[in-house]
Amino acid sequence: MSKSVSVLFVCLGNICRSPTAEGVFRKVVEDAGLADRVTIDSCGTGDWHVGKAPDTRAQAAAAKRGVDISGLRARQFQASDLNEFDYVLVMDQQNLADVERIRAGNEGTRPELFLSYGQSRHTQVPDPYYGGDQGFETVLDLINDASDGLLAQLKERLA
């Protein structure tokens, strides 16, 4: 039986950053021929957008780069996610604190900042929700970079 791995991306509302990361990383994994060995999902720490599609600006920016996230739907992070995913990758320090608070006293996957897998000088993926279109492009640049680093690590783990 071949090894498999699961990855969960977490942001605040699950309509901008984490669904973008899910879509981009899914494409990276598919292009690497590992889609059958890597499970990918995303969620938000808040419940405001549960069941909603990603922000239309996030969808448009991703589509320009050949990534379709239109079919994704927001869901809220659950404590059980810490036991179901091998990687819990958060977008910023507040997401990290929120997930750590839920994790407190429990076993399970320790959350990490997603950009720790990238080469960028940035440590957090900025929330583009209240900004202009360029913010979504910046998010995609950061996510693409970190996705490459994460894929390299997953290839080692799956070898």
Automatic annotation (TrEMBL):
GO function terms (MF aspect): protein tyrosine phosphatase activity
Residue ranges crossing the lipid bilayer per the database entry: none
Family named by the database record: Belongs to the low molecular weight phosphotyrosine protein phosphatase family.
InterPro entries cross-referenced by the UniProt entry: LMW_PTPase (IPR050438), Ptyr_pPase (IPR023485), Ptyr_pPase_sf (IPR036196), Tyr_phospatase_low_mol_wt (IPR017867)
EC number annotated for this UniProt entry: 3.1.3.48
UniProt cross-references to Pfam families, sorted A to Z: LMWPc
Domain Phosphotyrosine protein phosphatase I: 5-153
Keyword Hydrolase attributed: yes
CDD domains: LMWPTP
Top-rank taxon: Bacteria
Keywords, in A-Z order: Hydrolase, Protein phosphatase
Location of the active site: C11, R17, D127
Keyword Metal-binding: no
Protein name: protein-tyrosine-phosphatase
PANTHER family: LOW MOLECULAR WEIGHT PHOSPHOTYROSINE PROTEIN PHOSPHATASE (PTHR11717:SF7), LOW MOLECULAR WEIGHT PROTEIN TYROSINE PHOSPHATASE (PTHR11717)
Leader sequence residues: none
